[in-house]
Amino acid sequence: SYDQALKFKPDDHLAWNNRAVALSKLGRNEAAIESYDKAVKIKSDDHLAWYNRGNLLSYLGCCEAAIDSFNQALKFKPDFHLAFNNRGIVLWALERKEAAIDSFNQALKFKPDDHLAWNNRGNALSSLGRNEEAIDSYNQALKIKPDLQQAWYNRGNALGKLGRNEEAIDSYNQALKIKPNYHKAWDKRESALGKLGRNKAAFDSYDQALKIKPDDYETWDNRGNYLSDLGDLEAALYSYDKALKIKPDDHEAWNNRGNALSDLGRNEEAINSYDKALKIKPDYHLAWNNCGNALSKLGRNEAAIKSYDQALKIKPNFHQAWYNKACFYALQGNVDLALDNLQQAITLNPEEYREMAKTDSDFDTIRSDQRFQALININSGIGNRESGIGNRE
After folding, report:
1. 134 neighbors 126 (Cβ within 8 angstroms)
2. Hey, which of 26, 49, 111, 379 has its CA 20 to 30 A from 122?
3. pTM here?
């Protein structure tokens, strides 16, 4: 055993490193870190021990310490592409995305055929909204390793963000060809099909994802959103309830459940759902806004305004809440406050809210006001009081 070897040769840095690897496989992580520390104390330029130490610290969520370890590994082996790649992953987890891309670029400088680094670089670029560049990275990964299902999946996500849904579906299909039980790919494939109006195929994809992983609360929640969009509110509630049975602290599912209940006219129950969401996440501006809508429908006017104000306190540029306040004040006959709030909504999102206000019946009582007419002097559209759905991409 390593302990026996170290008894006879306590300065064997390789034995300390290998002992740490064995300990980490047994879940004895603190002892493993101590062994890595022994290894690098004996041989400070042992890049493998520093690298392994960084990986374990990353696994334990000690991100800054992990980066320090990777930096030490790179100090002694500047062309160590694996350390650059794994350092990039930790930087990305810390939201230091530009630094992560730099790290992935360094990995690829020393090993241009590192398919994982290309994939990870694509993820970092996509999270910055640089989806065309991300797709190029995923293409490079797939050129090197065509059966890398996560690159096909991530490529599909980037294409979906660009609205290229047919191509996204093709990418998800490729991922599923390689890994038929890839439930996340089934889920995202459904979303892309739904956007193209291919509803039965979309619904089948959700069910396939849940057949593979029936305890995936996110898929149940997304299935609920899909059914809600189709107007099948009772079925949507069933999906949200399934999500919440699996994960009772899913604030998005509580919010979306509230929206479905409110659309069914069950506003007291809706408020209870929003309250659950806000108990879990007090700064969830969507739930404050939606709770305001439900309170308004019940005529609890003061409480409704307080809810909208809470949403705006958390997110001052949340145009939906400004618009909903405008609707509320218009229905109350408070012309000045209705116009003030509508002005805020239009300032933040002029095209949408000018169009909505043009035909929204909530404004019928103030429609003849010249100030109102001045605010909506663009062609008409349609719209109603807005609820915020917590969608997962």
Report:
1. yes
2. 49
3. 0.58
